[in-house]
Design a protein that fits this description.
With about 350 residues, the protein is an alpha/beta fold. The protein is about 45% helix and about 20% strand. It has two domains: about 5-170 and about 345-355, 3-Layer(aba) Sandwich (Rossmann fold), CATH 3.40.50.2000; about 185-340, Glycogen Phosphorylase B (Rossmann fold, 3-Layer(aba) Sandwich), CATH 3.40.50.
Length: about 350
Amino acid sequence: MSSQPRVAVVRQFRETGGMPESVLKGLRALGADATMVYYARALDPMKEALRGPAAGFVYEMATEALRPLADAMFIAEIARLRPDLVLIFKNDGLSTATYRALKLATSGVIAVFHPDDPFNVGRRVWFKRRGGPAHRRSRVAMREADVYLTWSDDLMRRARAEGARRVEFMPFGCDPELHPRVDLAEVPDELKADVVFIGSWDPERERWLRALATLDDVDFALWGGLWDTHCKDATLRRAWRGRPLVGREMSQAVAGGKIHVNILRRQNKRAHNMRTFEIPCAGGFMLHERSAEAARIFSPGEACDDFGTPEELCDKVRHYLAAPDERARIAEAGYRRAHEYTYTDWARRVLELTLG
């Protein structure tokens, strides 16, 4: 690996924040000449102009129609940058032909990281999107990338079965600048609670959290999108505090909460998610849905604790609300552990795996 490797970090849209931005910062902190490349920049004007219930459908159709233009602009940009590493985040609509053209445009290593389940493919039924977040061509990257990076043992196995030439385990991480530990004095009253869940609605989360909402003597705060429109449980809807929380506001909610619950979506079962790292990164005490892979990183009883049923979740909430010293000890160990998995560490690992 050269002393200053050139890296093209590829994300789909021209936007700020999120994991690609944190990894870009990490690469630059390590001395890499890292540049953000936006695959779909040819579609930016249309994305800004579209509004209304059919916007997603129209944009997806336009993306497919204009994909040859987006491909050409993307490949030209990579050829101009001449990177040692092309690190692609998701962009799972790229075709085999696009990857082949990309390999002709650069001699650099092509690595792909998909933050969702690439096998959970979504589809359109009229204007409605059904199924998961992955594009129907998402498996192409497994076969075409030089290195396929994924966050789950199960996805590693499935990617190899799909024909991936090289698969590496890359768990998520945290960005201490984005999710710092803040002082309780900085936390507004609205962000304080006994028990907190931060995340958007889905049926699995509603099932797990329903029991918490019935604990009359526990101040339970639920933050995130779709709970007001999709949640069927009236007690949970009453616990909903409103908007999604991101960045420093999320850190304030972590500081203001005594216990933070992390429930995995179906695609993350037996593994972990971004919140696995973000909660302890901000100094919070985490109760994590039981997962062997998460436990390898955050040991239950030491750097977090876990639960396997809604009843056990409620029992542990009562236990830890009555044990502030134990909570503080575990939260501090979780904080130290999370800071061993920053996105600068993630970037270093990627450079080692791809460029040696």
